[in-house]
Structures are given as structure tokens and as C-alpha cells.
Amino acid sequence: MKILVTGGAGYIGSHAVEILMNSGHEVTVLDDCSTGHADSLPPTARFVQGSLLDSDLVMRALKGCEAVMHFAGKSLVGESVEKPDLYRKVNVAGTKVLLGEMNTAGIKKIVFSSSAATYGQPDSSPVSESAHCAPTNPYGETKLAIERELSTAALTQGVAAVSLRYFNVAGALETNRGWLSERHDPETHLIPNALRATSESPLRIFGRDWNTPDGTCIRDYVHIIDLIDAHVRALKFLEASTHHVFNIGSGTGYSVAQVVAAVSRVKSSPLATIDAPRRAGDPAVLVANIDKAEMILNWRPERTLDQMVEDTFKAI
């Protein structure tokens, strides 16, 4: 299949490009490289550099494609609070341009990289797809707005759409060019930050008195290879004139203390940490219910927390 991967030069998108091409698909990448890196792409991938907001460029990128995997967009929660208009413009308006050009080109298949940020702070955990969505930041609001655009496109344009909501992604993939890795600036993810912690710059643990088995917060993590497998399965599942939403995650979650222990095992040395007060608004447990993905997509994660940490460590 010929697939356009938007945001294909980013962390998650570049893994999708690699795995799709290794599976025999033809891939075009559209990325403005504002946060992505063109050197992460296979040399045989067709690369179009530019913005989703440029309709002519989007049409050129879509030429010859049969489906879209949509990863492009701004994705930092803190930045979204500071620049909400930028997030609405790039994420929501950009997706509207993409859907409009897909319609013109007669392309009806799209898998969207959504986020559990659409839920906000759910009343219970594990959280299912039927839970009420009340995002607590502009980033989550834009992801939910895009999902609504996809529902409209399914009804009015016959689009076959799937949105995958996931929490935290970790790990890396080794290619014949080396390891694909997280190259975020700033880096906000726990596992790479834990791996880089030192005695001079220890990892902060925000609260050890949560109502959890070990007193630290529990969050959901999924290995990036398992995540892309879910995208590939979603692509095969797509149904005309429908928009389906699936949670993608571990289904059980891992505590901060478990992540610390895994990092210590992988590095064969104790991780330097420092206790800090709880952060306002942090829930004790936030984990995805993945029953729907297991039942309909026949998907479950295969890789463990140790594998996520080990692969991240090798890629750093």
C-alpha cells in the first residue's frame, strides 16, 4: 500500500515509516522538521518538507497515496498552555487542510495518532473509550477536536478513520542506519530523563504517599514497536464511513518506583533520585483499558518495561 505519513520525521512517525517500509509499503513523509529530523528517515522514503497548512504541498504529498497515518502536530502540554492559538492552528486547522485535500484526491483511509489527554482527569482507572472526555489543556482539546473532525468526515465524506489514544510511549528500534531514538528538546518523558539522571542532577519523584502499592504514581507505558503494530492493525481494520476510537497502552501501568528499578537494573547501578512534593492535578493512577483493542484489533503489547528501558538506553 502507498501511505502518507505526516510527521514522519518525528520520534513516533519515524518508527512508523521504518516499520511500514520494512513490511513492503511505499511511504511518503510530510514533515516541516520543526521538531522532527530528516536524517531519521530511510533514504528510499519519498520526503516532502513543509507544513500541513500548505494545501498545495499537502496535495503534492498525497499524490499516488491510498491511505494516511497522521502523526503531525504540536505535542507539548506546557507549550500548549502558553501558545493555545498555535496548537489550534497547527493541529486542528492543519488536519482540516489534510482532510480537505484527501477528499479532493479521493483518499478515504486515515489512522490518527490521538492521545489520552482527550480524557483529562477521568473519574476512574483503567479508563475506557466510553469515558467522558474533558481535556485539561489546549493540547488535549486539539486532539479531541481532531477526533470530532474525523467523525464528521466519516459521516459526510465516507472516510474510514481510526483514532488511537495512548498515554506514554518509550523504547526504540534498531535499523541498519543505527538506532531511532527520542530526540526531544526539551525532553519531558520519564524514562529517557531517568536514564540521564546523575548524582548532580537526580530524578525528581513527585510524591511517595500516593494511594498505590508502593506510594508512587502509576502511569501507562507502551513500547513504540507495539504502538506502531497497533497503527498497522488499525490500517487493516478501517471501515468506510466510520470513525473508531481505541485505547493503546499496557493495560496495567507501571509505577514511578518500578521505572526507577528498571532503569537501575538496565544500568547496573542505583538511580539517583530526590523526593519532591506532589504536583497539583496529578492523579494517583492513570491507565488505559485496552480490552477494545484486544477484541477488535487483536492487539496486545508484547514488550515489557525492561525492554522499553533497555532499548531507550541503547538509543541514547
UniProtKB/TrEMBL annotation:
It catalyses: UDP-alpha-D-glucose = UDP-alpha-D-galactose. InterPro entries: Epimerase_deHydtase (IPR001509), NAD(P)-bd_dom_sf (IPR036291), UDP_G4E (IPR005886). Residues 3-249 form the NAD-dependent epimerase/dehydratase domain. CDD domains: UDP_G4E_1_SDR_e. Coiled coil: none annotated. The keyword Isomerase applies. Its EC number is 5.1.3.2. GO terms for molecular function: UDP-glucose 4-epimerase activity. Keywords: Carbohydrate metabolism, Isomerase, NAD. The keyword tRNA processing does not apply. Its cofactor is NAD(+). Pathway: Carbohydrate metabolism; galactose metabolism. GO terms for biological process: galactose catabolic process via UDP-galactose, Leloir pathway. It comes from the Bacteria. It is an enzyme of class 5 (isomerase). NCBIfam families: galE. Homodimer. Belongs to the NAD(P)-dependent epimerase/dehydratase family. This is UDP-glucose 4-epimerase. The lineage of its organism: Bacteria, Bacillati, Actinomycetota, Actinomycetes, Candidatus Nanopelagicales.
